[in-house]
């Protein structure tokens, strides 16, 4: 989930790269990996916090139109 949100809402939408290891280790098609739950939860929370302003602006633009 962290990779997905990072890839779509940070990399593709905004050109931001916070965690390059997500692409190296956890991306779609990467070999199976079982990361630490604590590590991934912290990463996911950081990613969603960084993506929220962008997504909030999309919602505001959609409602305004």
List keywords for this structure.
65 residues
Query: What value does the average pLDDT take?
Result: 90
Structural class: mainly alpha
Order of helices and strands: HHH
Radius of gyration from the alpha-carbon trace, in angstroms: 13 Å
Unreliable runs:
none
What report would you give on this structure?
By secondary structure, the chain is mainly α. The protein has helices at residues 2-14, 20-26, 37-64. Helix 1 packs across helix 3 (37-64). The longest helix is centred in the C-terminal third of the chain and has 28 residues, at 37-64.
Question: Can I get a quick summary?
Answer:
Helix content is 74%, strand content 0%. The protein has 65 residues and is an all-alpha fold. The longest helix is centred in the C-terminal third of the chain and has 28 residues, at 37-64.
Please give the structural blueprint.
Elements: H1 2-14, H2 20-26, H3 37-64
Helix pairs in contact: 1-3
């Amino acid at each position: 989930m962290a990779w997905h949100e990072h890839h779509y809402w940070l990399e593709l939408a905004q050109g931001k790269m916070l965690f390059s290891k997500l692409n190296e280790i956890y991306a779609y098609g990467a070999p199976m990996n079982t990361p630490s739950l604590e590590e991934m939860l912290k990463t996911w929370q950081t990613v969603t916090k960084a993506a929220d302003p962008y997504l909030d602006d999309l919602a505001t633009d959609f409602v305004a139109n």
